[in-house]
């Protein structure tokens, strides 16, 4: 007789009366389940976290979880039938599954639009306050700042341009506080914002930076800019004072960088060292838990997030609010579909109106970019059973306990001034949302996860709560709380009390698991490009670059430089360098990839076959719109995977992102790239940070053992792959000589790529060397791997310097020549940048940063550039700013990218 499972052994109903159950483990097709008075037989294999019907559902009838609809049946669905929509079917099609999925969906993502009944609205009463008192050991700040759970010195980059400065400064200062037990660390806050002309998120950014400064976990803060960006220190200070942020109650200094990178680092080190004794003198004292402000987050969610982990946070936040503390629910798009639940208890009608206004504004903004707020769920979400935004939202909303009311609905980063339960506008992108909660004053983050997200913030401790015991056991070194105990019979009250006690201990200084791992990232809500839908159709149908080189005029007078370069040849390619590359498939995998490459380089792994290991940490792949923005991202990443300098490459996924390893494999198949030679690893599926690090190191070791020897070859100009950029004012002589250089290399059969936004293309002295046409459009897309040598112009959707260099390097160039008419550019992680100038003002300020001064007779400048290029390509000279650590990497989202 076949085995018949009891329902409780294999599945759960979110609430009694739902018509769809959640499988608590993978159940094969044909599995028989005793449910109430019937035996269900599964028609298809149902993955863990996916749903099957427990009642007959007629066409047009709602599918229910938590008594709320998440879709409508398209055909009759019988008890035991796997329920699946088209989006999940497509998401599973790129996964490497060993079983079949239904050929057609049986339900559609369709629910009735929410209509707020303001006429019959009834304000909810506040929960009765607890009469007892609980305390934690915290850092008492000024009354307008609150109480800190940590005591950090923060190095804050006002815009993305100073990100590499604060990062390098923090690196140089690591360890100097080790004997100062009251200082928790010196941490950089580098981000992607404020570096473009007239960004649309200026007010949001100013509010966030001001909030970062006064967060109670900050003992001192150094705020750094260059003074000429779209967002400056002066603007941050003016905003903070105008809006009554207590910046004078925190030890701080605004610094504008004006000299060379190394000089400014020395000044920064000296300034921070002066603060150490003052910050160390700050002491923990017993403080009421009413001073706790907790941010509630979920990431890498699964079908159990709304059953175990999120209700647990609802319990904890309900208790904290009754003690007088505050909790912040965020992620606007992850509440679409859960409005009836969220607004079932609200303090007043004004708060309800504000919530609806924020949701509608979010929907409108995403529509300007050709996408929908309902497109939030990632590939990892769907793989783990969250079929659509409605199902994801219903579960996410459980971070508010049913008895708790919404007290306030606020803007992103708006300060939390009183106790209570808050809703804060933000995207579903975890890191972007967390940054807003930190700016609002949260001194702790509670983060639930089904897949096992490893997210942490640099100076606010994160408590990570995983949904199931099996996942907790897999990732025990990276998770704090196993909410799966609730699924196994522990009461929510018992589990809630345990977590509340843990929260008090962590608030008092006990390090969370994430703090012990040393893993932390920051991302502010990224700028959006469109202000309305007026350009949408034009942009969607813009011409696509052909990839064909742009013809340049033949010129019999063009000189041929006989200079030769020593390269190596391996397999079917020749290049100037060989590196081991780790490509994070999303932002959450970036720092882990960096930790692994750092260890590999410290070990000297791969030498002399590889010069070094590199990672490309970025902010994309998760919580952003699909379509053109996602295509741009995958194209650029594949450009790096196929880069001629990359000898061995491994893709590292977080595990729950949209652009996971299987997604990237599929994209490479579409583009005709051999994906079999790459390595693949998953932080979540391979067992966490430590285990995945071991796997990655072992893969590279195996590849190096099996590698064929390389052959030394000598090439002329035909072997060069050069990118040319410019920044600031352009010297006419330099422009002309770069035109000559371009013509010389292209004429010999080499490659030159110039970004579309370069001022060189507007200079007659450059253009006249190459072609007679007054305007030449892009020949390749942003980040596109060049398949045919010659002269190319690369599409650039923004004017951001680092975003431009990031796309340019992905084309396959092996050296970037930067003509500097302002301050030098931030350099690339592995494609060397030669900074040249003929400007004496630039030279006076940045002499230590410039690699080549163009002086004397201009006709000799091309030879000088080629000679210094030879030194770089043959590794006898390392560009100065790369040596000093002024390195950055930032993906553009193009004209359509918007946070979800």
From TrEMBL:
Taxonomy, superkingdom: Bacteria
Residue runs in coiled coils: none
Family annotation (InterPro entries): GD_AH_C, GD_AH_second, SAF, UxaA_altronate/galactarate_dh
Keyword field: Lyase
The SAF domain, residue ranges: 18-89
Stated family: Belongs to the UxaA family.
Protein name as annotated: Altronate dehydratase
Biological source species: Paenibacillus qinlingensis
